[in-house]
């Protein structure tokens, strides 16, 4: 009996040692695979650090100086950042970016959800792939080309004024990009046109992941279109909505080329936005330190807004 007990104890100890060695070997293999994985991302990280990280750190450094880009720089401390808050022109530019967020993000997301609700109720709609392609087409056109086209559309003899005259509202015709009250909404509507297709494609991809049996059960129970949308479609699209808001809000906050080509911040400063102010101060007025402070502040705002939108993500996708 004693020998048997000793044999069992020895076997248990041997098994424990073997298990420990196996566990240690498994841990070592995982660590090696982890190091190999870091080697795969190293080239991308180096490119990011050289072309984005280092310039961003330099921008932070420049933001604490008064510098025209040529002569010796002088220490300014936090004065450039104080100007972002106290300078009426800079405050207005951030306010214009908030207005563009409505046109670039809120309206396209709402329209995209509405179109998604219609399409999810009409699965057999013919030519849907064609309409999806047409709506997404603005995303693949260069922004400068888009801006040039819309300058023509908004001109005195452009498509908008021609349509107004055609329906008997010629008295409303004007140069839309030349008015203090109309220039910013006109640019915003271009952003709406650009982003509707992006939102629709994201939402349709999300609807495609919803099991058809859920819609069938809802229709058997007599659920109408509105109830079906708010009970099934909308909750299932939280991840896609968060992604769409992130992309569209960031595009609104960092808008530059569209403003530069269409209005150059005018008339006056009625369409100036932070990215344009950063460019204008750095390359036109020789205020490199102020431009860097605007750029850094804009980056911080984008990071905060992106983090807040990320809270919309479902926990299993976050």
Number of helices: 13
Biggest beta-sheet profile: 2 strands, antiparallel
Q: Major sheet: order of its strands?
A: 1-2
Number of strands: 2
Question: Strand-and-helix sequence, N→C?
Answer: HEEHHHHHHHHHHHH
The gyration radius over C-alpha positions equals: 28 Å
Structural class: mainly alpha
Name the beta content range.
under 5%
Alpha-carbon distance between the two ends = 59 Å
Morphology: flat
* Mean residue pLDDT: 85
Helical content class: over 70%
Which blocks of ≥5 consecutive residues have pLDDT under 50?
A: none
Primary descriptors:
two-stranded antiparallel sheet; 318 residues; mainly alpha; 13 helices
What is this structure's SSE topology?
Elements: H1 2-62, E1 65-66, E2 74-75, H2 79-86, H3 88-121, H4 128-136, H5 143-154, H6 159-166, H7 183-208, H8 212-220, H9 225-236, H10 238-253, H11 257-262, H12 274-283, H13 288-310
Antiparallel strand pairs: 1-2
Helix pairs in contact: 1-13, 2-13, 3-7, 3-9, 3-10, 4-7, 7-10, 10-13, 12-13
Description:
The protein has a two-stranded antiparallel sheet. The protein is flat and about 75 Å long. The chain has helices spanning 2-62, 79-86, 88-121, 128-136, 143-154, 159-166, 183-208, 212-220, 225-236, 238-253, 257-262, 274-283, 288-310, and strands spanning 65-66, 74-75. Helix 4 (128-136) crosses helix 7 (183-208). By secondary structure, the protein is an all-alpha fold. The N and C termini lie far apart (59 Å).
What does this entry show, briefly?
The protein has 318 residues and is mainly α. The chain is 74% helix and 1% strand.
